Amino acid sequence: MVSNLTQDLVGQSFIGVKLGDVTWDWNPALLGTSKQTQPIQLYHEDIKVGKYQSRIIVPIRVRNFRQLLGGQFTLHFNPEALRLVGLEKRLSSLEYGTNHAAAGNISFLWTNPQLVGETLADGSLLVNLILEKKQDFESESLTITSDITPIEAYDTDMRLHSMEKTSGRLVSAEPLPIAWNVSPNPSTGKTVLQYNASESALLTCRLMTTTGKTVFTQRLTANAGNNQWLLNLNQSGKLAAGVYYLKVEGLATGVEMKKVVIQ
């Protein structure tokens, strides 16, 4: 029996190879090199959006994109505030799917059929995302999720890399009046909704996932002046950590939505 093999053996004969099948100690996830990998970073600079600006071009750039055979991820934006107009890719092997663009999700996939690793210098442009502003907003962010395609990438050594969006916001060039807000945000599921109403109103609050599924609904009565309500977003069950959208109907400005992060 050969164990703790540290060098090549030649002129040997064997019947089989034990991979922990006797003692159930083989972990296939440990195959290959154990060297720690760096996450692939996607980012863009902060972009100021004018009040009367309709088209927004977001240049998505990369870091740590080295010797990669392929990967996939989902890019999410707020569909209440933005609409996808088009994309301009800079990596020839990059493919994308827009079937779920109405819900704010764009899936991306790239592979190299020749199994040759691709490298992009830090700061290289991966894709230009062309968006249309549907309503005024104070700040919006793009996020990477696994909603459509799981986040993963592999290099030429078959090591798994994670992917992350590190920086970049779309911000209003002119500050918007704050009529309502939720705080704390992020929260563990309990947050306070504040609304300064010019007159009495009936409001409907809905918390939705990034795919549009409603997971919380509550109706509120607002009086003229400042109003505060404690919302227990976990009332129907503990919510998974992640990004959600709180949609409020019945405001003086119509229907508005804010990003809510559950920890």
Query: What does the oligomeric state look like here?
Result: single chain
**Radius of gyration from the CA trace?**
24 Å
Kindly report the average pLDDT value: 86
**Topology order in helix (H) and strand (E) letters:** EEEEEEEEEEEEEEEEEEEEEE
What is the number of independent domains?
2
**CATH domain class of the largest domain:** Mainly Beta
Based on the coordinates given, report the CATH architecture of the largest domain. Sandwich
Provide a count of the helices. 0
Note poorly predicted spans. none
Shape: elongated
Helix content: under 10%
The biggest sheet amounts to:
7 strands, antiparallel
Number of strands: 22
Q: SS-based structural class?
A: mainly beta
Question: What do these coordinates show?
Answer:
- This protein has 263 residues and is mainly β.
- The protein has 2 domains: 40-172, Immunoglobulin-like, CATH 2.60.40; 180-262, Immunoglobulin-like (Sandwich).
- The chain is 0% helix and 51% strand.
- The chain has no helices and 22 strands.
- It has strands at 40-43, 47-49, 55-63, 65-76, 82-89, 94-97, 105-111, 118-120, 124-133, 139-140, 143-145, 152-155, 160-161, 163-167, 170-172, 180-183, 190-197, 201-208, 214-222, 225-232, 242-251, 254-262.
- Strands 4, 6, 7, 8, 11, 12 and 13 form a 7-stranded antiparallel β-sheet that branches.
- A hairpin with a 2-residue loop joins strand 21 and strand 22 (254-262).
- The mean pLDDT is 86.
